[in-house]
Specification:
371 residues; 40-stranded parallel beta sheet; mainly beta; two-stranded antiparallel ribbon
Amino acid sequence: MALAVLGVAVPAPASAAVTLQCGDIVYASVVLANDLDCTNSEALSAGADGVTISLAGHTVHGLVHDRDHAGFAVRGGTVDLIWIFGPSGARITDVRTSLIRVGGDDTKIVRTTVGDLLVLNPHSDVDIADSTITGSFTASGSVGRSGSLIRSTITGARVDFSSGWNGFLLRDNRFQSSTVDFSQSDGGVLVENTFTDSTVTISSSNNTDIRKNTFRGSQTALRLASEPQQNTNIAYNTFESNGVGIRVVDNSTAPLRGTSIRGNTFTGNTTAGIWATLQAASTDLVTIEANTLTGNGHSPNGTVDTQGSLVNDGIHIDAAAGNNLRLTRNTTRDNADHGIEATPGSVVDGGGNTTANNPAGCRGVLCRQVA
């Protein structure tokens, strides 16, 4: 092969490592033979499409970027900063870096540890797998593309999808002491993740699917915020040892149409399994169905709702009269006060709810007493 650096072709065996200098432009794929200290300046960049920089375990202090070329790849070492602005096909593999900035299409990041990941171009998509994020992951854009984060560890990070970043998949990740926000971003899918001491917030985002996740140890595990959104599906998740499992806060009259909270398990949440505040009447159907709520509300720390009532139940509904919030076939046991507490006339009793060893039984719906 011939290696071209700074525009000069240099013959080299395919497997030979090459010594490079700060500011070199690489025109063909290369294996690095040395560390580089180019702190606060440009270290290496691609001068053509399809260039791979193999770091071979070396450390590069400084910026590595693609100079707007397609098919750029970096692998196997440590880099301060990586910028990707080529049209498509960038690959980052087995790298440690403080920052990745993505502006191109079809970017894949695998087995990489990154502090901050910033997706800048609204036409970009990015797929991350088997990686670690420790700072922030931010993606926004009015015509955002889909992407994914799978089998990764997110620690002490903020993950933020906003302004039309649609169809993003979070699957089989481990979130620790982190926040995840979907705002004006439709079609998000969160499945089989573990959220520890972490909060997920959904606002102004339609058709979000939240299934088979585990939420534990957060003050509020899952929050539906007070902006209009439709068809949020929350199903078969486990909420344990949080303050509140699911918090619904809604101040508008057409907010949560088609929201379904179904088949989830809530255990040992200190304030409530589900706490919903609906301050305006709405005819839009919201369904809370076939959930199991056990041992919630035993340490509410004086938390009260908008009417001054203590929140210490399995399900606590603080709603205006006339809402179309339907409670059906929920199983409640050993909660501190009510299995279900709702303002009379504020919800629809769908039947089939049960209570066992809840001191105050149920209020606002009829619960069958079981052993």
